[in-house]
Design goal:
The protein is of the alpha+beta class. Helices cover about 50% and strands about 15% of the residues. It is built from 22 helices and 14 strands. The chain has helices spanning about 5-20, 30-50, 50-55, 60, 70-90, 95-115, 120-135, 150-170, 185-195, 205-230, 240-255, 305-320, 330-340, 365-375, 390-405, 475-485, 505-510, 515-530, 535-540, 560-570, 580-590, 600-605, and strands at about 175-180, 200-205, 270-275, 280-285, 290-295, 300, 320-325, 340-355, 380-385, 430-435, 445-455, 460-465, 495-500, 545-555. Strands 3, 4, 5, 6, 7, 8, 9, 10, 11, 12, 13 and 14 form a twelve-stranded mixed beta sheet that branches. A two-stranded antiparallel ribbon has the order 1-2. Helix 6 runs antiparallel to helix 7 (about 120-135) and helix 17 (about 505-510) crosses helix 18. It starts with a helix and ends with a helix. Mean pLDDT is about 80; it is low at about 1-5, about 55-65 and about 590-608.
């Protein structure tokens, strides 16, 4: 019995030591972000709501100099808004967020203590300050890519928030308001106050000073942060330089036949990290704090671990969430082995072996009938390499592909090159459909275009499909069949078609005997297909009787999957926050890139 007491004391001592030692260092950024949000809300509430400010210090505050109270209210409000904006940066280990918080926390604590508030808010602020100072090494992440468009976004969002918060400030003093001003008067008072002028709403006592100081602080905060964002040095998103592109092309020339997505690494809105030996590389794009790679690493498989390590180091240095979209099974095995990340099957890539393709047989009857019907209507096809096209014809194809795009933005990231006809892409394959017996349109007799990128020396991978909306249905099927039939003469043995997300679930869910869970999952995918091409791409690919190659998403934690999914949708162009299309075109025409076509220049300006 006596031995139980020491054991209990040891457990208590360990608990006390753990309490005084504080949280684990790796958990500090998340904890600091939550406390920072709490402190920010306390500061905002202290500066806005009169009843929240009532405390035992109220009597003492009444004898302070007249302007000190309103000034403290404005300071508390400003610190609260800024700390609320900094909380996300603290969660992501950002060094600049840490520096700003260390300055704002004591200022906010003084403001809370001075302006009729208890010790609680000030104590929490100082406790967070001590936590940040003790664990300052946890906040070392470098800044994210940024451009001066963020200044405009800050002005719009923070300005709208300041107006909304200003309406609250103007309206929370009903017993101090002179008369009965309407919503228009209150809004006018807010707008005047944000610019530092007295508005039409009157108050009794020092409330007029408090409201005026608070509104002026919000306006000054909006102006100063916008000016800072507009004039600070830009950190542009990583782009492929000409040297990077040359090195990648050398790797693809040696190892490009291993992955059908390899050539898409040459998108010029991607960054790249090379292995120490230079024999492998990982291309990526940063979207909403996610460092998104696509496909497998480029180059020698034995050098992949070095490139993956550089990728992970870059993600850690900026506190980006690492993720890989659409890697192969071999690529997924290497990524998970080298990094400890997890992998999840995302879907399947449709690959057609040219030697096995034939239009004969019952399974190909629908495709065969559609192709013959279109050919009887007077359409003809041409399949050529890009280098074999004339300059005028290539320019006409580029304009047609741009104008026939069905969305305001170019879609695609992991399986899209984003350009047609670049001088360095002469090996790309293009299939076109023509109808000569009609009156020529703006693009002559051109009716549809399909573009393929090289996949090693004996394969191609589908990049885009565009057609004139007035053309007969079935243009895509016609051109894919034409490319498959012309492939042997061009030395092509395999063609990769579209990627079908969740293909296995759709296929198994429609079979006899599928369980209720699988049927429900398939039903959800069919429902989502109204907005995203999930079921339609699967059925389109299945027409050509391909073999299916699984593709995977690699991620760090299941908690990151929603964020990774949203970033992938942004990268693929399904979710956009860009400028209107006519503005992008105007900017692209004014700022052409020297080594790219006008179409590519427009896309890079939009990405920036």
């Amino acid at each position: 019995m006596s031995g139980a007491v020491p054991g209990g004391n040891d457990g208590s001592d360990r608990g006390l030591r753990r309490f005084f030692r504080g949280p684990r260092p790796e958990a500090v950024p998340v904890l600091a972000a939550r406390i920072c949000t709490l402190v920010a809300l306390l500061n905002i509430a202290a500066g806005v709501f009169p009843r929240f400010r009532r405390s035992r210090l109220h009597t003492f505050a009444e004898v302070l100099p007249g302007a000190l109270g309103p000034f403290a209210a404005a300071l508390a409000l400003s610190c609260g808004v800024l700390l609320l904006l900094l909380a996300h940066g603290l969660r992501r280990h950002k060094r600049r967020a840490w520096r700003a918080a260390v300055v704002l926390l004591p200022a906010g604590a003084v403001a809370q203590f001075t302006y009729r508030h208890s010790f609680i808010g000030a104590a929490i602020s100082l406790a967070l300050l001590a936590l940040l100072l003790r664990h300052r090494r946890e906040f070392a992440a470098l800044p994210d890519p940024r451009s001066r468009w963020r200044a405009l976004a800050n002005f719009v969002l923070l300005g709208a928030g300041s107006i909304a918060l200003g309406l609250v400030i103007v309206s929370v003093h009903p017993d101090k308001v002179v008369g009965d001003p309407g919503i228009a008067d209150r809004l006018a008072h807010v707008l005047y106050g944000l610019f530092g002028f007295e508005g039409p709403v009157g108050y009794t006592g020092r409330t007029s000073w408090t409201v005026g100081f608070s509104l002026g602080a919000l306006g000054m905060l909006t102006a100063l942060t916008t000016i800072y964002l507009a004039f600070r040095p830009e950190h542009p998103a990583a782009r492929l330089t000409q040297d990077d592109e040359s090195r990648l092309r050398e790797l693809l020339a040696k190892h490009g036949g291993r992955d059908s997505l390899g050539h898409f690494a040459l998108r010029r809105d991607k960054g790249v990290v090379f292995s120490p030996s230079g024999k492998a590389a990982v291309t990526y794009r940063v979207v909403s704090g996610v460092m998104l790679a696509s496909g497998d690493p480029i180059g020698d498989v034995e050098a992949w671990p070095g490139a993956i390590e550089r990728f992970m180091d870059e993600a850690k240095a900026h506190s980006w969430t690492p993720a890989v979209m659409g890697c192969s099974e071999t690529g997924g095995e290497v990524w998970t082995r080298e990094t400890g990340l997890d992998a999840l099957e995302l879907g399947d890539e449709a690959v057609v072996d040219v030697a096995d393709f034939s239009l004969s047989g019952r399974a190909m009857r629908n495709v065969r009938q559609m192709v013959k019907r279109i050919e009887r209507n007077g359409y003809e096809t041409r399949v050529r390499r890009i280098r074999d096209l004339g300059e005028k014809e290539l320019e006409r194809i580029q304009r047609a592909a741009e104008d026939w795009r069905g969305t305001d933005t170019e879609r695609g990231f992991s399986m899209a090159l984003g350009r047609i006809g670049d001088p360095n892409d002469g090996d790309c394959l293009i299939a076109t459909a023509h109808k000569a017996d009609e009156k020529p349109g703006p693009y002559g007799d051109l009716k549809a275009v399909i573009h393929f990128v090289p996949w090693g020396k004996d394969g191609v991978s589908l990049e885009l499909m565009r057609r004139d909306r007035s053309a007969d249905p079935g243009m895509n099927e016609l051109l894919i069949v034409a490319a498959l039939q012309a492939a042997p003469k061009l030395g092509i043995e395999r063609i990769s078609l579209n990627f079908a997300m969740f293909r296995a679930a759709l296929a198994r869910g429609e079979k006899l005997g599928a369980g209720p869970v699988l049927r429900a999952w398939r039903g959800l995918l069919v429902f989502l297909s109204r907005w995203f091409q999930i079921e339609s791409l699967y059925k389109f690919n299945a027409k050509f009787r391909p073999r299916w190659e699984p593709r995977f998403v690699v991620y760090r934690s299941s908690r990151d999957l929603p964020r990774i999914g949203f970033a992938a949708m942004q990268a693929e162009g399904f979710v956009t926050f860009g400028m209107p299309r006519f503005l992008r075109r105007a900017i692209a025409q004014r700022r052409p890139c020297p080594h790219q076509s006008a179409q590519t220049a427009e896309r890079e300006v939009r990405a920036a």
